[in-house]
Fold this sequence. Notes:
- The protein folds into two domains: 2-155, 3-Layer(aba) Sandwich (Rossmann fold), CATH 3.40.50; 157-280, Hypothetical Protein Tm841, Chain: A,domain 3 (2-Layer Sandwich), CATH 3.30.1180.10.
- Helix content is 41%, strand content 26%.
- It has helices at 14-19, 43-47, 65-77, 94-108, 123-138, 143-156, 167-171, 177-185, 208-226, 240-254, 265-271; strands at 2-7, 22-25, 28-31, 34-37, 59-61, 81-86, 114-118, 157-163, 188-195, 198-206, 230-236, 259-262, 274-280, 297-299.
- The strands form three sheets. A six-stranded mixed beta sheet has the order 10-9-8-13-11-12, sandwiched between helices.
- Helix 10 links the parallel strand 11 (230-236) and strand 12 (259-262).
- Helix 3 crosses helix 4 (94-108) and helix 5 (123-138) runs antiparallel to helix 6 (143-156).
Amino acid sequence: MIKIVTDSVASLPAGMAEKRDIEVVSLYVNHEGQEYLDATMDVDRFYENIHVMAENPPSSSQPSQHTFDQLFEKAAAAGDEVLGVFISSRMSGTFEGAIRSARRCKERFDQFRCALVDSTSNCGDEAFPVLDAADARDAGADLDGCTEAVVQGVRSSRFLFVPESLAFLKAGGRIGGASALLGSLLQITPVLTVADWEATTLAKVRTTKKAMAHMVKVFQDDVAAHGLKRVVVHYIGSAAPALQWAREVIEPLVGRAVDVLPVSPVIGTHVGPAVGIAYECEQPLSGKLTGPTDELVFCL
């Protein structure tokens, strides 16, 4: 049996993970002396107070090594193979932690096999390759075939998002104070994406309205050129703007209902209030991965 594992940053709804037989390992959110399990916290309630967190943003931490050790040893003892898909290795040490535990497990269980994939991203952009793995497994693919499906999903997905302000990015050191001030004075709103393992600016436009329109155009162009397999609208903070945007703009474009899901607080508290869209196309997308991808997959 192939055991599929991901982390909580993929933002998979608990019901979907359970239905698809996907195990979710949780990261942690730390704020004002409290530690929260990212996978089980009440995200909407947590986001109710996000506007006051900019000056003292929460921190996050990866799953414990013990958690990974237990996961791999349990799978190996049962004779299962493991396919893991995790948050970008440049955003968290989660992927490296999984590799360490897998190596230790191999020392004890010589027949143990696993494939660990760096999703290079987070949220829906990470979740879609996980679902590709589940689709391939359920269709009877072996570990190598499932891994190939994940890599294809990584290359074919994209995450675009527009932050309400630059305050959280400034507080987290993602942009300098001068850049944040200039952006505020000129009413410049960035359209952000994840490419080559890191968050980056796709475009800078005047006003949020224009930024949202630009995001829709990129989505439409990608879908027109490469087809559409999956899509989800994401939000950080209040769900209301995302729900309205999904119903009035995105659903008429794709001709079907679209899930609207909160972003994992591990990511959300670094970005602040935002609306975004994650989608997977039928074919690889340009600009998602431009450099060497040798470190994308670790196999034992």
